[in-house]
């Protein structure tokens, strides 16, 4: 069963969040209908209930809603000067800058490859070709099987990651 007080608090929270960042806002006064159904559910509506609805015990509430307005940026569209280090459409990037970016990317990929290969070796050591050592809390065989399956999935994912990194590095050079 829904508590009307909780619903009103949630509605007040939503209204507050709408108003929180509004420097220029518009306030609207509106009517909502709070209807309680036969099953005890509370429903808030913006339209009046008609005779065919199963809701009984409807009350009206007058509330004020504050709608935030979007800020107007006057100088942004007319500013002919691009921002510092802005990438312009169809602009040529100097070769030295591109080489530096490529080398940095290559170094990052190599570091990620080494980390993935290290993780793969570690997982394979723990997995022991499908027969990992039992841990102290794995007296239940099902827990042991689940951990072994999880290790196998981690190995497959890490192998895929290593293969993808190797493909990406081979594309570079």
Walk across the major sheet and give the strand order.
Answer: 2-1-3
> What is the distance, rounded to the nearest whole angstrom, between the alpha carbons of the first and last residues?
65 Å
DSSP strand content: 15-25%
Helix percent reads 40-55%
| Major sheet details | 3 strands, antiparallel
Work out the number of β strands: 3
Secondary structure class reads alpha+beta
> Which geometry do the CA atoms define?
flat
List low-pLDDT spans: none
Task: State Rg.
Answer: 31 Å
Number of self-contained structural domains: 2
The H/E string reads HEEEHH
Average of the residue pLDDT scores: 77
Could you describe the 3D structure shown?
Helix 2 runs antiparallel to helix 3. The chain has two domains: 4-68, no CATH class; 95-172. It has three helices and three strands, in the order αβββαα. The chain is α+β, with helices and mostly antiparallel strands. Strands 2-1-3 form a three-stranded antiparallel beta sheet, with helices on one face. The radius of gyration is 31 Å and the shape is flat. Strand 1 and strand 2 form a beta hairpin. The model has no long low-confidence stretch (mean pLDDT 77). The longest helix is centred in the middle third of the chain and has 33 residues, at 95-127. The chain is 47% helix and 17% strand. The chain starts with a helix and ends with a helix. It has helices spanning 4-20, 95-127, 141-172, and strands at 25-36, 42-45, 56-68.
